[in-house]
Amino acid sequence: MPAAADWMGKARSAPHDGAGHALSAQGRSHASRLDRWALAQIGASLADPAIRLALWDGTAAGPPPSDAAVSVRIADRRTLFALVADTEIAFGDGYSDGRVQVDGDLIHLLEAAYRAAGPTPWWRRPWWVNTRRRARENVHAHYDLGNAFYRRWLDDQLVYTCAYYPNPDMTLEEAQVAKLDLLCRKLDLKPGHRVVEAGCGWGALALHMARHYGVTVKAYNVSREQIRHARERAVAEGLADRVAFIEDDYRSITGTFDRFASIGMLEHVGVAQYAALGKVIDRVLDPVHGRGLLHFIGRNQAAPLSRWITKRIFPGAYAPTLAEACDGVLAPWRWSVLDVENLRLHYARTLEAWLQRFESAEADVAATCSGRFARAWRLYLAGSLVAFTSGSLQLFQVSFAREQDNAIPWTRGALLQSAPGGTRA
Amino acid sequence: MPAAADWMGKARSAPHDGAGHALSAQGRSHASRLDRWALAQIGASLADPAIRLALWDGTAAGPPPSDAAVSVRIADRRTLFALVADTEIAFGDGYSDGRVQVDGDLIHLLEAAYRAAGPTPWWRRPWWVNTRRRARENVHAHYDLGNAFYRRWLDDQLVYTCAYYPNPDMTLEEAQVAKLDLLCRKLDLKPGHRVVEAGCGWGALALHMARHYGVTVKAYNVSREQIRHARERAVAEGLADRVAFIEDDYRSITGTFDRFASIGMLEHVGVAQYAALGKVIDRVLDPVHGRGLLHFIGRNQAAPLSRWITKRIFPGAYAPTLAEACDGVLAPWRWSVLDVENLRLHYARTLEAWLQRFESAEADVAATCSGRFARAWRLYLAGSLVAFTSGSLQLFQVSFAREQDNAIPWTRGALLQSAPGGTRA
Prior knowledge:
homodimer
């Protein structure tokens, strides 16, 4: 696990000596009894003897800095009580703008926070509706941050979804190619197939399919930046006659196809639109042998994503349970689920690679974006990593076929054969 | 597909000349206009030009007998109108007691009936509660028909669940061993593991695990006949010290185990008891590395089983959707679904093998059971075969682990390795 100390050191707004001196202009007053009570509350909820918590005046709980795996410094009283009242938002925003400073192993801290939070006890189903307009705004907010930003820490093909590491020592680049190939094998692509992709990112899968499997692809995405990049790649690689990149919503897909793929889009669809997505899939896929694959971040038990994540990083996002995805998207059209694979630990490995690269690129990121943005992004990557290692999030790949299609693969054998573009699973 | 004619010929209560003469003492009066209307209704709903329908007086719809793939003769007016009013029950009971006679390809007829019925448009969730007592009665009604009966048409180990044919030309015996091995690989068995099985049939899986994987097994079943047979096998094969067969309900399981397996029992649990089953699984499995597998007949969209099947063959049975099983059994305890495989076509192949053997054993069956029983059983096997080939039923294998268990297999590679007891997948 990468430690957070070095990078955070640069993001600090004021120096500190590591022993608990005043950090900010606010909150200079000495900690009161109430402040110490609040500090103790936070310490008790984390329940981890390796975490040191310190206030602005040096008041501290937990081991001395030299013995702590991670030290958290809370810069002022407002932040302290915000942490007690609304931990997720207060920690996320406080970490981003420097009012909560973390020295040492951020991952260790987040793991303790996940353990402390436990399962969400009760909640309401997401009520929002991701209309076309809202969907475009949500996507724009995250994916149109500039391709240069993503190039700093994604692989060379800009694949921004869970990689697949058949060999755990693979590079991120190799693992993303292995994932693209795994998807093609699961889709059972044959030369001449017409494929439609909903939410194509920077186009890596669509191009991989056309290049290695002799298929034609129509790939949809509402992110202008991504579509532009994907089209340039298609031209540069001589695939523009076989891959069409279309800047539009999945609800606008037209045509008839042999295969449907959606990789990392379902999280942005919203439960209220699952039936609409299912209807599109049913409408555009061949009525006899049409097949498809959904690849999405999911849950074991229905729960919202972290409130900070949906507020600051992924507006409108939701990770469904396998049952919610099957019931919402597939069952109304009687799709038959052929195969489900959970790649949770592969997403943890992927996030580890992204986080390492992100940290290595810290100087570049800090030069072009605000420190607040860079810290928020780092927390998002580290928090996601811990969400997958702790089992709070899952990664499901769900393959499906028409109910009466008896031409489906007889066994999984074909899934593990070597394939044109990649490596043996 | 085996044709039904020969066997049915022997089950007939009265001879007929194949051209539509009177068949029974009842309904001798000539067909009225209303009778002909009812006949036309049935013909229109089947919508298959290769099916001939004939009444007791020779009135017929469809092609002449020589051109028909299958001919159906309805023996009296009561049966005719029962078929219009309540097709499933009337056909099942009429076929069983000879009031509906089928010459030719029964499978062809059932396929047309499945197409005609289409998806169930609306229904209520199963309301019944399979209490311990009712569960025992339900199981007794089906599984305690005498081991000699099942020995006539199952494989040599009496495995009464979907087989796995990695090679489609395998014998039923080979395919059942391949299935047992597939289950062991999916359960990732290690020497010394403590395994519990809920609903163990005649004990083949429990014995296979102990013999080839060095584990100990506690196997539960409420069928007295099956437990008796399983215990005899354990003693005969020198495995009685490693496999305990217990005649009791799954709700009575005690102990702590590394692995939980339930093959073909969920269909008998009833949706109302899914939470109870999930609670048992959670209670008895190791809290860190406990894992399990559910193997069950399922649906793409929630619907009851054929009413005739639940009335005459499997009282209290229900085939859930994947979502119902996940939501009901696994989600409340935050089990993580690792892997789902749909073996629908393997169950069709298995049923083909059972049906062939059943037909070959017709003389033996007819000698010991009533003709009515034998015909009902034959219809059940043929109807199930068509349910799987038509996609009306699915066969799901669902593997699951504790949410925070990071010792789960890294990839599926191990699932396809050759294993001690069986064949390479």
